[in-house]
């Protein structure tokens, strides 16, 4: 367990450092539509994180990012056999979803596996449905999953194992993605459901007004 958390923390720290450098180099003092909604992340996140992907949904249908991100979405990369980090984070995201939806705003959580060998379309669909009725579960080939993870600067590494209970080290961030705007914010593990909901609602309302 400690190894998994250590790898995830190191990877997440490296990703944040890379993102921060990209913001500064690319955007400098550029005008930021969402300046009032950010919590120190700065503009330019859409260029630093995210991009086109093709994955497979619970009905075994190939879907693209355009098919999935039809409304404001909270993306999380994890795996269904994760013993502690993933269920905690995913439940937190489900709670944040309820809070945003309670304000009358469209919002959906998305779970993308980093363990396609075990997480079949049926498995991720059942897991997502159990976590939240609106949660979208996605898997794919190892190449498709890696491409999606790379787009969001997500690190993951399966442990070598000779049984069905191997662990997968992975970055544990959640990403707020808006149709037409791309990724606009991200949330660490210690961000509360209330803070995610508040920041997400700000982005959603700002996007709708512009």
UniProtKB/TrEMBL annotation:
It comes from the Bacteria. Gene3D superfamilies: Glutaredoxin (3.40.30.10). It holds the Pfam family SCO1-SenC. The lineage of its organism: Bacteria, Pseudomonadati, Pseudomonadota, Alphaproteobacteria, Rhodobacterales. Belongs to the SCO1/2 family. This is SCO family protein. Coiled coil: none annotated.
